[in-house]
Amino acid sequence: MDFQVVILAGGFSSNLVPLVSKEVPKALLPVANRPVLSYVLDLLESNNLKDLIVVVEGEDAALKVGGWISSACVDRLHVEVAAVAENVGTAGALRAIAHHLTANDILIVSGDIVSDIPPGAVAATHRRHDAAVTVMLCAQPVSGPSESGGSGGKDKTKKPACEDIVGLDSWKQFLLYIAKGTEIKKDTRVNKSILCAAGKMELRSDLMDSHIYAFKRSVLQEVLDQKPAFRSLKQDVLPYLVRTQLRSDVSSDQNNVEENGNGKNNMQNNEVVLSQVLSNASLPSFHQVYESGLDSRKTHKCCVYIADESKYFVRLNSIQAFMDVNRDVIGDANHLSGYSFSAHHNIVHPSAELGSKTTVGPHCMLGEGSQVGDKCSVKRSVIGRHCRIGSNVKIVNSVVMDHATIGDGCSIQGSVICSNAQLQERVTLRDCQVEAGYIVCAGGEHKGETFARK
Amino acid sequence: MGGQKKGGARVSEDAEEQSPQRLQAILLADSFATKFRPVTLERPKVLLPIVNVPMIGYTLAWLEYAGIEEVFVFCCAHAIQIIEYLEKSEWYSHPNLVVRTIESHKSISAGDALRYMYEQQAETSQIQGDFVLVSGDTVSNMPLADLIQEHRERKKKDEKAIMTMAIKQSKSSSLTHQSRLGTDQLFIAVDPLTKQLLHYEEDKIDHPRGSVCLDKSLLESNPSVLVSNDMQDCYIDICSPEVLSLFEDNFDYQHLRRHFVKGVLVDDIMGYKIFTHEIHSSYAARIDNFRSYDTVSKDIIQRWTYPYVPDINFSGNRPLKLGRQGIYRACDAVLSRSADVGASSVIGYGTKIGDGVKILNSVIGNGCSIGSNVVIEGSYIWNNVTIEDGCEIRNAIVCDGVKIRAGAVLEPGVVLSFNVVVGRDFVVPAYSKVSLLQQPTTEDSDEELEYADSSSGTADHLSGLNLQMESKASELGPDGAGYIWEVCEGAHDEEWKHSVAPIPKDKLAEITQAIDDDDTDDESVVPTSGELKSDADSINTDMNDPNDDYCYFEKEVEGTVLRAVEENIKVDLVTLEINGLRLSYNMESADCAGATFYSMMKLAVDTPHNSASELYKNAASIITKWKELLGFYVKKIDEQIEVIMKFEEMCQEPPKELGPLFTQILHLLYDKDVLQEDAILRWAEEKAGADETDKVYLKQCETFIQWLKEASEEEDEDDEDEEDDD
Cα–Cα distance between B129 and B139 in angstroms, integer? Predict the structure, then answer.
């Protein structure tokens, strides 16, 4: 499949402080005790996409990510790690690695997604329509990203913020309009020429962009070259392509011929046309109709692939999302975790030690070599490797990363304890985040706080 | 509102009591438009024949077939003719359909008509429940019973669902942006699940390009909105009685769509809802202009409107015999052997056609006589028309009693009104409208009650009508009779858009060119129209935003103060309101002070005055009266300085009337304790370092400031003295 995959793994996301740090870039944040990036890699591997470029912001982070990748999956995948400057934006990152891109089509995947929607389907849709860009859309979670409803009382009361507004044609094949969810506060303006050409447009605010895109390389590179001000794929490049789809400046086909104008390419083009004819021969798309009506007019297609509603999809881009992902991967979406669950719907590593009268409920995970004292209760939580947990400790809806130490009589709810952090005795935490290596003093009672060294 | 609610409740109770309810319809036998002039000067539009049957015949036959039991025919213009027709055609004595006529000569719009109905309703309560609202120029064969049932059930569940309108898919041309019926393209937004209508927009000819603007609340409240432009409004509505009372409440509603539908969609206080019903297999169209006349005629000949086709008697018409290739011919029509009647043509009773005549895609009425070697293509010849030898008629409408003398030519798009005579060998230019009546001027337009349906339209028309042609009865050649009507300025586009003639090729090429140009324009401006903006743009707008906000805020405050002055509202209420504005716009107290002061001074300037002293008096009286309001916001020195700065700004605004009064008013503000001397002095200090141009007003009030300074020093001295005394 002549597809190159670019994984935009980001760097140190400020949204995720204090969970990310110099030591742990965003891509390596643990979800059910393995880096979030591994979920993306698994997903791509399962779709037989093995030619990958992982783009990381910042040299240090790139080294860390590269180190992990070489240790984890060097034998299975062909992965290159490229470092780009920080804060260049997604479009900037692609500009920086443009010389690596050689395939006809590029699949761009955000490095922070945990999902089971098939990127291969996006690639197929892209090819079938010979599109300039194809966007994967997925259903917006109804009540926050938690379908489990375990703890989600809080999530349910809050109406989910609208992520994106998209306009689709009546067959839900083409993308006619896209705007940020925040634009919902303003009046929506729909371009008439596109609407007239398409006849109908369904505006949806219940779908969101899943940050998986397939681009025609020539189109992508032309846009990146022509518009040096574009920084973001989602906010600049994609809307630009959608807006100009009926008066295209990116003349994709011609370029192909010019660049490698040999017979082989022509044959490929013919194949593409043929496959198009076979796939949806009955109706020409409105683009073609429009093109035929006016001479000297070029169009390009912006397609969508709408993932099935039953598929799981979360982007790990906030602390809340981090909590949700961890809970879901060992809970409702446990097929993603790759672990096999016990009869009690939990995973307790054989080397973990449990004290007497300690219960580990369903939807829990207890990592390798962790020790839990007497009379503890663990519910719907992930506990990392080699953690030491004292007696009479209650952990609910929380994530405890590797090597954390929790003293006797602590109570932890809805919180994240990063690796090497230490809670002294009788600490009560609710909706708190504790930075890696931080020590929380004994006996404190905290709610909604962030513990980090200033 | 209370009374109307009661009315609504009463009717729905009735409905429950006596179900099944009579199915009723209101038929507007007047289009309240001038699109069919000059023909409609002499005959009401609903009586114009379409494929040899008056339009209203189609509408009534369809209503009867669809199970409507009682129809109210609302007549305005030429009411007598309509009543006569109904009597003659035996619709009055129809067994299944009770036809009642309502006459009103005062109504000049659909809104007026429905208001009249509402008034009648109070006395007679004829309308018992939901009713069908159609106009008399509708040709349709859609079943209504299901639609009415659907409407009733929805109404039972949701009291606010007051109307269901029928829509039909019809893609408008990508070039001309008009539907095949010649109407402007329509943009509607519908909730795909409930089919509730959310937005309704007819594309105006004035600004045909750009974007459709959907209100923000639409997407916020609906996860999915279907915007379509390939729908056509059939103007067939199922209405609940509330619709009538809504027209009564909103006396300015004239047009059913432009005013009523928009009004309902915008109004979220009453919360009334309109739903749509898409019809798929059946036919529905309204004859709104000459182009739709042409289109619908062809649809009838092609039998899309079955059973309302020429070979079936549905409205007292004599059925014609259908031959091959869609040729309908009356049995007693006399055709010469050498006459060539082409596909899709209709030839009426008693018509004689001479040698070598070519007829294609045309309708010829009853009792016509056509000489030899005449060519008729795509035209509509009504009854008793005489066409002499060798005429050529292409894409024209020829009304009853017209005489076309030998060798005359009608170019495409010509409309000949009743009894016009076209002279020998005369060529009637394309798109001309010819009538025996002169083009009416503003004064005599009262004679006929077919008005333009919007005020702007009326203005356009009337200005056009002024170009009356004086006594040129022989405009159609020496032996002709009739006036060629001038086309008014604004309607040049309509001429070819709404004509029976197809759009000429060069026009299409022109439009294509225009679209190309437009697009390039779009490119250069790219106002990104609500989509995500490129970085450069967003920076700009971000910078503008606070300013814009302030402008809006200022306007709002101005409005509030103005209202307060006019209605003499108490000061504390006004402050409450301004505080509310301050919170909603996220403004500082100083901004309030500035804006309030600004609006007060503006009020002073706007009050009529002749001289500077009068202006000062105005200002003084306003400041004296409303100083408490101002005082509320100018408690701090900073806020007072803001007021002075604002004042300075105002003085510089044209017409600079306030400029000379700067010192006087400043003094006044000081006297009234609005401004403290500290504030004035601080302002003076700040200004001292400014540019020369900025110091105009500082210089003007130098003496005043000097005086203030001295006064304060004196005070200080006094204080000191007092201390000394102690």
Answer: 24
